[in-house]
């Protein structure tokens, strides 16, 4: 299997879906000739033309609104929000329109809409180009929220998102766009939405993470295995909504200890829901307090590189938390 970067796998997924179904189109800021701010759509404008790779105005509300309308008219839009930080003007369209359309129409109207957005820190983007927004949307029934951490999963999950009959928010860890590499099958495949991945096997404790933090969690687990003999289960959640409770609890049953890692602000972050599931449905397996490692409760990731490093979890911080938890 060829090795790809995360961004190349995403581009290949979109290329294949555009070729597979003429109803698929892409719209967003600079997605056309420029190929997107991160070059995710590079080359697709030349291949498919301006009617299927559509540059939009700088208006996120209209990007999503056009996507919803097109989806209701039997098209399959992929809407790119240039940075997840910019998704807030479209919040009403996503939460009150896209998420509720199928329910309020009694199953008459599907919204086969995929919204792609790069999220998270680590690139020196400062306050408005580094936010993690996933927790806002995982509270909304009617949406699916997906965050891959490997090129294999990025391609397979994005293809599943495009084929899903209802709206999918597809957040991509932009720090890993070119730094994360992995093997990607050449043939047709998809990865099912709603299923976590056991990224590493171990019996001492469970680490739950997603996106860039799942990538870091595997590195941290290898570090503590080599240096301390601690063997971690690493669960890459992949899909935040719906939640794969079965895989989450199976790992906790095996280890009895849980560390949940995410780069968003710690308070009210997505990891709190995983902690609640473990404490309620997995109480009988618990051998230690459930631990969370997240970003500090400050407004956003700072521009300053030293402060950015202080904000974000990394493999060494995760390894330290693993050692603390293993000591119980």
Question: Would you write up a description of this structure?
Answer:
The protein is an alpha/beta fold and 328 residues long. 37% of the residues lie in helices and 20% in strands. It folds into two domains: 3-183, Thiamin diphosphate (ThDP)-binding fold, Pyr/PP domains (Rossmann fold); 197-326, Rossmann fold. Helix 8 (212-228) packs across helix 12. The chain is globular and about 60 Å long. The model has no long low-confidence stretch (mean pLDDT 97).
**β-strand number:** 14
Helix content: 25-40%
Element string (H = helix, E = strand): EHEHEHEHHEHEHEEEEHEEHEHEHH
CATH class bucket of the largest domain? Alpha Beta
Q: Which regions contain 5 or more consecutive residues with pLDDT less than 50?
A: none
Number of domains: 2
Topology:
Elements: E1 3-5, H1 6-20, E2 24-28, H2 44-48, E3 53-55, H3 60-72, E4 76-80, H4 91-98, H5 101-104, E5 114-119, H6 134-137, E6 144-146, H7 151-163, E7 168-173, E8 181-183, E9 197-200, E10 205-209, H8 212-228, E11 232-236, E12 239-241, H9 245-255, E13 258-265, H10 271-281, E14 291-295, H11 305-311, H12 315-326
Parallel strand pairs: 2-3, 2-4, 4-5, 5-7, 6-7, 10-11, 10-13, 13-14
Antiparallel strand pairs: 1-8, 6-12, 9-11
Helix pairs in contact: 1-7, 3-4, 8-12, 9-10
């Amino acid at each position: 299997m060829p090795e790809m970067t995360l961004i190349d796998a995403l581009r290949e997924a979109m290329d294949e879906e555009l070729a597979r179904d003429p109803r698929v189109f892409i719209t967003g800021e600079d997605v056309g000739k420029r190929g997107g701010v991160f070059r995710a759509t590079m080359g697709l404008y030349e291949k498919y033309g301006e009617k299927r790779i559509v540059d939009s105005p700088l208006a996120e509300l209209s990007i999503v609104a056009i996507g919803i309308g097109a989806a209701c008219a039997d098209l399959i839009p992929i809407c790119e929000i240039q940075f997840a930080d910019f998704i807030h003007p479209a919040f009403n369209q996503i939460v009150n329109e896209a998420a509720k359309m199928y329910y309020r129409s009694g199953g008459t109207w599907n919204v086969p809409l995929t919204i792609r957005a790069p999220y998270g820190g680590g690139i020196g983007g400062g306050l408005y180009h580094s936010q993690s927004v996933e927790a806002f949307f995982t509270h909304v029934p009617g949406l699916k929220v997906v965050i891959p951490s490997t090129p294999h999963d990025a391609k397979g999950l994005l293809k599943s998102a495009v084929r899903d009959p209802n709206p999918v928010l597809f957040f991509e860890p932009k720090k890993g766009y070119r730094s994360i590499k992995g093997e990607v099958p050449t043939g047709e495949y998809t990865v099912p939405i709603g299923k976590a991945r056991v990224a590493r096997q171990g019996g001492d404790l469970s680490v739950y993470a997603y996106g860039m933090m799942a990538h870091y969690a595997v590195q941290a687990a290898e570090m503590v295995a080599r240096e301390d003999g601690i063997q971690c289960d690493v669960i890459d959640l992949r899909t935040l909504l719906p939640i794969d409770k079965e895989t989450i609890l199976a790992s906790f049953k095996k280890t009895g200890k849980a560390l949940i890692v995410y780069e968003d602000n710690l308070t009210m972050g997505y990891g709190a829901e995983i902690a609640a599931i473990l404490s309620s449905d997995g109480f009988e397996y618990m051998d230690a307090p459930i631990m969370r490692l997240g970003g500090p409760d400050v407004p956003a990731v700072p521009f300053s590189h030293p402060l950015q490093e202080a904000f974000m979890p990394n493999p060494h911080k995760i390894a330290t938390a693993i050692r603390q938890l293993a000591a119980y």
